[in-house]
């Protein structure tokens, strides 16, 4: 394989909004020694694409859309196999022909943020599918800092101790439509759930130790009395059941069950079709009805009240991206609880008075998922839950259908209007 | 000892504001079986008293002020020594004559929040020095839920393994003016510092492990490259150098040094006298000039920029309680950093746009210190840093002077105008 010269098909958004065109343009070529060119097998259409589609990001120039793609490497820059040591491993090992997935942002793998795992705030961070960095709804894409950014599927989980049954062979069997979930929505859901369960405000419940012992091994004794069994029930609300919220919910339940924790999870969305999909997915992963509920906003509030005697949730995963969801999250969270927000928020001030946050001892996490760092954990969950993440179409799948890239315009339109679920583009049919 | 009948001297605030009167009123008596009556040795005047003094809390009735007090038990309700098992230890062991300190809020020791260590949101939480619960600027105070609320100084640290040199004898030598710091300002400072150093966003620096490994032992391997030495420098800003900010700063440095962490701390306050005190205190605890700086707001911004190549602090301790301090905290914090706010905030919405929080991956903690749970850690730091916390008067002390309770009106006035530092009232001279 090599990068052909010539033209390719791409999906472009024209300013100011709603103007999607499938066009022909030159195939990208290596521009920097750290670049790779990836030939795309499948590209995702995602809720985050709608921010620009709707014009809320004030786009001023057209660009190639898409930040979710899986494919094969067809060309590598001069940095690869140059024999330089101390760089991310892929600079010495990535081969033309390797199958890769990419996080939705570029990360160099070499700056402070990348080293400490906060890869989505890499000093060279760039978002695919913007005017700055051409996206993956195309036949080919140029990946900057490819040795830091890409995951090679053939070796990522090789080192996972105790996970051999989930190793190379299992990965080799994964459908491209399933792998594509690793680019964004599944790791983002995993991130939200992981933040909630590892937050200092949740640790007393997950460790059975009172605060501050729960946060830190210390030689200073605590004189606080012991926890009761009912103290350690972890109650979580997931607010928003789009594709990311569904991933968050499944990941959260998977983590709670695999750690043997007692829990109650309520999944909240005002849209009926979203709730129906959540219910269908839950019925695939469990038949226990007492620890999980799907609810409208009003039902959700009532369920939390009932489950917790009015004190609220330990954690609320906010997976929507607007102020009504943030306000609801505050209402649902208990004193000393945490709001873990992965929604992309806009210009308004967050709807919290300082006094309210003080009075409830609220903790909050905001921001973009460090997909590159969450990848091993997300891959693990992807493999364990192929019953959910392996399906295309049907009641209980995250991916509704795979269509030709030629149908991009109609797909954006339907997706924007909530008339279809997650769509993947095949750029070769 | 027993509760005398008759009258006592108290400090009262009359609505709507600024109206402090020293008056004579009946000595409180046991009203509920769980009550204790404490004869007060010293009571503190605190920055938090100024919120009500200035009328920002819309007070409608007069009440006895003060939420910081140390004294001796002179009467106990029927619950004590009643032989009931399963209650907090003090219900069986507290004796008349025991020396005690009290957190600034009542905590029952028996509800879910108390059991898990989040004592300041006890289901029966009440703040001393309000219309609901008479305060400690008096000769006697009634302590509700006393078996859950009070600390008995003679036995608290007995169980602290490895801390024998800081045990009973050392505690017995502590001055009342030093013990009084345990009621509020020292544990609140410890809480702010502890939250910062144990926040998931700080753990990569303190554990030398990349996120998400830093947060959780997991059998899912990480393929992120190793941390460099310079990645693990913990950079913190303390915003606000009132008594609580000073305690936060000293506690933070004590924790960083005792854990052998590399760090840089900048202590920021616009008021010169506050900065001067901070500098005098620091010169008592260290002679290293490269890892600590005292700064005005503008100097603070410049120092953080220089220290961190423009990326900002890992953590910002907000110890002020207004929106300008919250806005400054956002400016100072780095992507994937945390803002640990202990300031008491008012009605305005916090000055953060959703987009800003997303774009920097900001985490935040707000709220009231669970003093009862932080007590062992605060006592440990109090004992270790008697050079700072043992002093009364002088450049480098937290307590400026001890005055007769008769001087309450003038003291409130001077304290409110920033013309004096922390004052303690002796109700018996
Ligand atoms: N942090 C990250 O790294 C990251 C990554 C991917 C997506 N995102 C963001 O996550 C959010 C969710 O993504 P998605 O693709 O699932 O979005 P989506 O728009 O498909 O789903 C959002 C869901 O929220 C529901 N909703 C709206 N208001 C609500 C409310 N007040 N309470 C409860 N539910 C409400 C809607 O009915 C909808 O089902 C978006 O903001 C997206 O941009 C963030
Ligand atoms: N969370 C809790 O449990 C708890 C406990 C005690 C006190 N508090 C609160 O903590 C805060 C501090 O208490 P204190 O007694 O030290 O207060 P204080 O008023 O004595 O000190 C506040 C300091 O902040 C400084 N300041 C004002 N604006 C600033 C800015 N923009 N940047 C930097 N510094 C600024 C002032 O100059 C002052 O020195 C108050 O809000 C108090 O009510 C909270
Ligand atoms: Zn996406
Ligand atoms: Zn980087
Ligand atoms: Zn106080
Ligand atoms: Zn309680």
Q: What features would you describe in this structure?
A:
The structure is a homodimer of 429-residue chains. Chain A is α/β, with parallel strands linked by helices and 429 residues long. Chain A folds into two domains: 7-183 and 374-426, Quinone Oxidoreductase, Chain A, domain 1 (Alpha-Beta Complex), CATH 3.90.180; 187-365, 3-Layer(aba) Sandwich (Rossmann fold), CATH 3.40.50.720. The first copy, chain A, has 16 helices and 18 strands. In chain A, strands 3, 5, 6, 9, 10, 17 and 18 form a seven-stranded mixed beta sheet that branches. Chain A has a six-stranded parallel beta sheet with strand order 13-12-11-14-15-16, sandwiched between helices. In chain A, β12, α10 (272-285) and β13 (292-295) form a beta-alpha-beta unit. In chain A, α7 (185-197) packs across α9 (243-258) and α7 crosses α14. The complex binds nicotinamide-adenine-dinucleotide (NAD) (2 copies) and zinc ion (4 copies). One zinc ion (ZN) binds next to loops of chain B.
Key descriptive features of the protein:
429 residues; alpha/beta; Rossmann fold; seven-stranded mixed sheet; 30% helix; 22% strand; binds nicotinamide-adenine-dinucleotide; binds zinc ion
What is the strand content of chain A?
Answer: 15-25%
**Assembly annotation:** homodimer
Q: Specify the biggest β-sheet of chain A.
A: 7 strands, mixed
Return the average pLDDT of chain A rounded to an integer: 94
The kinds of small molecule bound in this structure are:
nicotinamide-adenine-dinucleotide, zinc ion
**Helical percentage of chain A:** 25-40%
What is the general shape of chain A? globular
What name goes with the CATH superfamily of the largest domain in chain A?
Answer: Medium-chain alcohol dehydrogenases, catalytic domain
Looking at the structure, the CATH topology of the largest domain in chain A is Quinone Oxidoreductase, Chain A, domain 1
CATH class (first level) name of the largest domain in chain A: Alpha Beta
Biggest interchain interface, per-side counts: A-B, 88 and 88 residues
């Amino acid at each position: 394989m090599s990068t052909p010269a010539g033209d390719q098909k791409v999906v472009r958004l024209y300013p100011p909004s709603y103007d999607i065109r499938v066009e022909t343009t030159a195939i990208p070529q290596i521009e920097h020694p750290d670049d790779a060119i990836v030939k795309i097998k499948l590209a995702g259409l995602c809720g985050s694409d709608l921010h620009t589609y709707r014009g809320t990001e004030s786009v001023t120039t057209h660009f190639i859309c898409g930040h979710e793609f899986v494919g094969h490497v067809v060309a590598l820059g001069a940095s690869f196999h140059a024999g330089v040591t101390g760089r991310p491993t892929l600079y010495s090992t990535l081969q033309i022909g390797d199958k890769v997935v990419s996080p939705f942002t570029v990360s160099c793998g070499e700056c402070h943020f990348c080293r400490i795992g906060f890869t989505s705030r890499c000093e060279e961070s760039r978002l695919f599918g913007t005017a700055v960095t051409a996206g993956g709804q195309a036949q080919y894409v140029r990946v900057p800092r490819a040795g830091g950014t890409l995951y090679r599927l053939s070796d990522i989980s090789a080192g996972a101790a105790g996970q051999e049954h989930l190793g190379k062979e299992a990965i080799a069997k994964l459908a491209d439509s399933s792998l594509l979930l690793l680019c964004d929505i599944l790791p983002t859901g995993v991130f939200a759930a992981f933040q909630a369960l590892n937050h200092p405000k949740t640790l007393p419940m997950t460790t059975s130790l009172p605060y501050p012992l729960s946060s830190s091994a210390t030689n200073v004794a605590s004189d606080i009395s012991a926890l009761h069994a009912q103290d350690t029930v972890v109650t979580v609300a997931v607010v928003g059941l789009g594709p990311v919220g569904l991933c968050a919910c499944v990941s959260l339940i998977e983590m709670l069950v695999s750690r043997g924790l007692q829990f109650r999870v309520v999944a909240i969305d005002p849209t009926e079709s979203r709730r129906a999909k959540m219910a269908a997915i839950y019925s695939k992963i469990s038949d226990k009805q007492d620890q999980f509920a799907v609810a409208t906003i009003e039902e959700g509030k009532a369920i939390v009240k009932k489950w917790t005697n009015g004190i609220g949730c330990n954690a609320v995963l906010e997976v929507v991206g607007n102020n009504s969801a943030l306000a609801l999250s505050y209402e649902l969270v208990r004193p000393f609880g945490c709001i873990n927000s992965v929604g992309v928020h806009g210009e308004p001030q967050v709807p919290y008075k300082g006094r309210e946050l003080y009075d409830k001892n609220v903790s909050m996490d905001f921001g973009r998922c460090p997909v590159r760092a969450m990848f091993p954990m997300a891959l693990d969950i992807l493999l364990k839950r192929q019953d959910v993440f392996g399906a295309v179409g049907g009641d209980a799948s995250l991916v509704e259908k795979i269509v030709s890239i030629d149908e991009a315009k109609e797909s954006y339109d339907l997706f924007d209007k909530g008339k279809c679920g997650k769509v993947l583009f095949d750029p070769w049919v």
